[in-house]
Amino acid sequence: MTDMVETLIYQRPESLQMVHTHYCPGCTHGVAHRLIAEVLDEMDLRRITIGVAPVGCSVFAYNYFNLDFAEAAHGRAPAMATGLKRVSPDRIVFTYQGDGDLASIGAAEILHVAGRGENITVIFINNAIYGMTGGQMAPTTLPGQRTTSTPLGRDVEVHGMPLKMCEVLSQLDGSAYVVRRSLHDVPNIRRAKKAIRAAFEVQQKGLGFSMVELLSSCPTNWGLPPQEALGWIKDHMLPAFPLGDYKIHPALSADEG
Amino acid sequence: MTLELLEGNTAFAEAAVRAGCEAYFGYPITPQTEALEHMARRMPELGRVFLQAESEVAAINMVYGAACAGVRVMTSSSSPGVSLMMEGLSYIAGSEVPVVLVDVMRGGPGLGNIAPSQGDYNQMVKGGGHGDYRPIVLAPATVQELIDMTCEAFDLAEKYRCITVVLTDGNLGQMMEPAELPPMRAVRSRADRPAWALTGADGRRPNVISSIYIDPVDEEAFNRKLMAKQAEIEANEVRFREFMLDDADVAIVAFGTAGRIAQSAIRAARDEGIRVGLLRPVSLYPYPYARVAELAKQVLAILVVEMNGGQMVDDVRLAVQGRVPVEFYGRMGGVTPLPDEILDQIRRLHALGGGEGAR
Description:
The complex is a heterodimer of chains A (257) and B (359). With 257 residues, chain A is of the alpha/beta class. Chain A has a single domain (29-248), classed as Rossmann fold (3-Layer(aba) Sandwich), CATH 3.40.50. Chain A is 36% helix and 16% strand. Chain A is built from ten helices and seven strands. Chain A has a seven-stranded mixed β-sheet, sandwiched between helices. In chain A, helix 4 (99-105) crosses helix 5 (107-115). The longest helix of chain A is centred in the C-terminal third of the chain and has 19 residues, at 186-204. Chain B contains twelve helices and 15 strands. Chain B has a seven-stranded mixed β-sheet, with helices on both faces. A five-stranded mixed β-sheet of chain B has the order 10-12-11-14-15, sandwiched between helices. Chain B has a two-stranded antiparallel sheet with strand order 1-8. In chain B, helix 1 packs parallel to helix 2, helix 1 (8-18) packs parallel to helix 6 (143-160) and helix 9 crosses helix 12 (339-353). Chain B is globular and about 70 Å long. Mean pLDDT of chain B is 96; it is low at 354-359. The chains are: A alpha/beta (257), B alpha/beta (359). Strand 2 of chain A pairs parallel with strand 9 (208-209) of chain B.
C-alpha cells in the first residue's frame, strides 16, 4: 500500500507573471528572470520592489515580472532608478540592462550611479551582441566576432576592444558589490542566483551600488543552436570575461556568492 | 503683502520648495545655476531630495524616475541643457507623469552664449522631443509671475498628468526685483501618492509606467488620448495679459521679457498720441489664438516683438489669417531690445497704418 503524497518541488515564483515571454528558444533571459524572481520571493521583497526595464531584448521585462515596473529610455535605467530610489529609500529598486544599454549608450549613467554608491541593484546581461535590433556589434563583442555590423569579425583596429564593465565599475569607491557570473550550466546558474541574492542584500543593508553581470547566450544572433550557444559562452566568453568577485564590501560575510 | 528683493532664479526655486516640491535633480548651467544652488541648500535642510546629476540627460531621467514614484519633482536648466533633456521629456510625455521644468533661455544656437534669449520658443511650445505631444508652457514677465507660475506649474502638471514648462530667459533669472513668496505648503504624505505611482505592488496588481505601445493601433489610441487631453487644456488653460488695448489701432504681441519691454515702449508711444496696446500671451501652449484673432478685427496692424528671429510670429499669423499686416521685430543671439527700438517700430507702423481715419 502506497500513500499518494504530492510534494511540490518546483513552481512559478510569485514574482513572475503567468505569461509566455517573447524571448527566443534557448535564450538565457528567461533563466535570469527566474533567478531574480526566486530571490525576491525568498527574501520576501516582491511587494516593495520596483524594477526598471531597459531598451533591448528585455524591453518587455515589465510584462514578465509581477512587480511594479518602469520602462526607461535606452541606457537611462540607472538614472531613472536613482530618481525612484531617492524618493522611495525604503523600496528595493533594481535595473535589468543588456550590454548595449548599460555599456554603450548608458555608459555615463552606469558609471555615475556606481560612483555615487547609489543604493540600487543592477542585473547586467552580457551576451556580446545587440539582440533586439538583429545582431549588431555590442561594446562587449569579442575581437573577431562576426556580427551584422562587423561582418568580417570585430576588427580591434577599427572598433577597439570589448569593455569589461565589472573591471571598470569595481574600481569605483561607491561600488559595494560587483561580480560576474555565467548562465551556461547548472552549477554556474546556482552561483548566479547566490550572487543576485547577495546583491539585493547589499541594497537592503544600504551598502551602496551592487551589480551582477551575467554572461548570457544569444543563439539567434550568434547563429548557433541553444546547446552550442551555451558552449560558446564557456569556450569564448569566459576567457574574455573572467568570472569572479570584483568588489565585495567588507560588511558582507565571506561565504556568499 | 510682504515684498522682498528677490533674484529670479532663487525666487522660483524657493517658490517650488513652498509649492511642495519633494525632489530636484539638475545640472549647473548659466544663467540658471542659482536655482540649483538654492535647491542644494534648501532641499536637504527640509529632508527633501536634491541631487546634482552627471548631465542633463541623467537629470531628466532622475526626474522621470521620481515622477513615476508619484512625488512633486522638478528640474531647471537653460537652452543647451534643455536640448539634452528632450529625449527624457518625450518619454515623460509618453508616460503621462507630471513633471515641472523651468527653462531659463539663453543665446544660441549651439553653445551660443549666456545672455537672455527667447530662441527656444519653437523647441518648447511645439513639443521639442520626438512624437506628438505638447507641454503646457507658461511665460512670466516679472519675478512675481515667475514665482506664481512655478507654483501653478505643479498643480497643472498633476491635474493633466503632463509636463509643465515655465519658459523664461536670463533677464528674469538674473534680475532682482520686489516680489512676494507664497506660504509653505505641506509636502504630500507617502499615503497620498497617486494610485498609478510605483510604490511596490503590495495588495494590488503591479503598476507599470511605460511609453511603449508596440501595436500601432494601440499607439494611435494613446495618441488620441493625448490629443483629447490637449483639447481639454486648450479649452481651460489659455492665459494672456492686456495693456492699453481698449482703444488701440496698433497692437504689439510679445511674451515674457519682450512683452515687458514693449510695455515701456507703449507708454512712450501713448505720450506721442499713438493708440497702441499690448497683448502678452502668458500660456504659450495653449496659445491664445482666439484672442489674437479677435484683435485682428480691432487693430490696423500687429507688431510681434521677440528676442529671436521670429518664432511666435508664426502663431500670430495663424490666428490673424491675413486680416491685417503682421510685422515682426526681433533681436537675436542674446541681445535684449531696448524700448526705443520698439518705439521706432511702433512709429513706423503707425505711419504705415495711416493713423486716424484709416479704418
